[in-house]
Amino acid sequence: MRKSYQTETKTNSRALAEHLAKNEQYLLPMVDLVMHSKVALDDALDDVSRAFIEALLLISASQVAGIPHSGKRGGMIRRNGRESGSVRLSDRKLRVSKPRLRHRETGEVAIPAYEKLNANGEAGSRVLDILMNGVSTRNYREVLPAMAESVGMSKSAVSREFVEASEEKLRELLERRFDGVDIPAIWLDGMVFSRRHHVIVAVGVDGTGKKHVLGIVEGASENAAACVSLLESLVARGIDPKRRRLFVIDGSKALRAAVDRVFGTRNPVQRCRIHKIRNVYEKLPKDSRDQVRATMRAAYKLDWKEGVARLKKQAEWLTTMGYRDAAASLLEGLEETFTVNRLGLTPSLRRGLATTNIIESPNSGVKMRTRRVGRWRDPSMVMRWCATALLEHEKHFRKVMGYKDLWMLQAALKEDSDLDRKEAAA
User: What are the residue ranges spanned by the domains of the chain?
Assistant: First the structure.
């Protein structure tokens, strides 16, 4: 099969530089640049280097002449188009396009970052090292602030650009609508930042298996008001509360009650099996954990009635052995850990719908993208970073496991809806 390719040009690099000056966190991964272009690896590295450095020069020029505003005359120092130049990067020079600045009275004005890069080879080498470390570890968000600092610019100059961009991503996430999008399943789970900041995340899957980040709200999954607020925001943005759907939750009682309150009591709820096993596991001595975990996993593969009966016997054994807390944890909401079995779904689809792993994966992606944050100043900062990271991670979502069998879930939900209508009519 023939593949289509895109050749990277200097024009593309300039456009990317302008984009990076405001949205440095969205640089495409290095591997994409190499795989989807005809240029050699060295040329690809030059394109990435040029884009970052030109973004750096744009920001440096803005610190001297101010941020350009369409239709407004500048001050004493004005932009006067662009011109070609070059910077020293370790063992070679890289041609770049840079803004041209002129003072009304004294003429040409130098761009501080450009002068610093060409003053000696050390600054250029440092910039290249920062870039390569950022690309190899995919920590693109760290690259421009670190580059800025290496040429004598304040990190805050870049940080302000990110604050503005991340605020826009948070607004995008909180205001995106889902009118006409059929979402048969919704996952709800929480994230924790620095042990004291909590965010609840909602992810949905449509009929084709595509995952969508539906929304986030500040608060823990045990916070009833936060849970209700999140679900009500979904309804306000087009998620039909009358349409029966499957909810997969982490076991939080507040989340469970919020689902009933906002979407009604007729929706099937699947409690996350991983959370259930973990909750039981942590209440047992080490020498009993593996056996109980294996029993629970085996039971989840059985017909739902047989599986429930098997785990009730397991709870009796735990009580006999004196592990009453573990037994109580196992029995709490037990039947809702078998909801996907009761709906008659295939094993592959059950694996995709039986846990909140669909959120755990974005959770780990968010943590990876935010792990360098040393201090979360306030909840708004957490929300901005979380929204930006989630939307970035959403681009790489795979379809839900067993997505080809989603028609079975939709048929089961419709069958339950038909039964409800018959009961109401009777």
Answer: 10-66+76-168, 179-425
